[in-house]
Amino acid sequence: MSTQIADVTPRPRSWWRSIGAVLAGILTIFVLSLGTDQIFHVLGIYPPWGQPMRETGLLVLAFGYRLIYDVFGCYLAARLAPYAPMGHALTLGVIGTVLSVLGAIEMWNFGPNWYPVVLAASSLPSAWLGGVLHHLSRPR
Questions:
Q1: Half-sphere exposure of 71 (CA within 13 A, CB side)
Q2: Is the separation of the CB atoms in 23 and 95 below 8 Å?
């Protein structure tokens, strides 16, 4: 009778894979958001680039798909993370919050001010949701 001993040595944490997971999430969010924006600009749904978008309905539309893309990007970061998937998703949420606050400062009074505030406020909750969705999708 042979006895197998489980390998209990922890895998070394790969910083490069962690950085890659977070960058993949950021890149996914940027490409999807800007791609959708471009499509709506080309179709004439959004005003031309450089002009403020003041209609509440259009801003709610933009927020809606950005929220979905944020959750998906954070899910992807968690999925690709070599360890601590929720930590990777939340790291992406912190980065999103910082970038959103910087964008709000830069674009203040260019359009309605509530929009960048809502984007910044939604970054961490959407990151958490992306991490939770990853956790729920793992096989038990």
A1: 12
A2: no
- Cα separation, 137 vs 134, in Å, equals 5
**Rounded Cα distance, 38 and 35, in Å:** 5
pTM for this structure? 0.86
**Domain ranges within the chain, ordered by starting residue:** 15-137
Residue carrying structure tokens 């998906």:
72
Q: Label residue 109 left, alpha or beta by phi (over 0 means left) and psi (-120 to 50 means alpha).
A: left
pLDDT digits (tens, 9 = 90+) for 39-73: 999 999 999 998 888 899 999 999 999 999 999 99
Distance CA 35, CA 24 (A): 16
C-alpha torsion sign, points 9, 15, 19, 24: negative
Q: How far is Cα 29 from Cα 97, in angstroms, rounded to an integer?
A: 13
1 is written with which tokens?
């009778």
DSSP state of 48: P
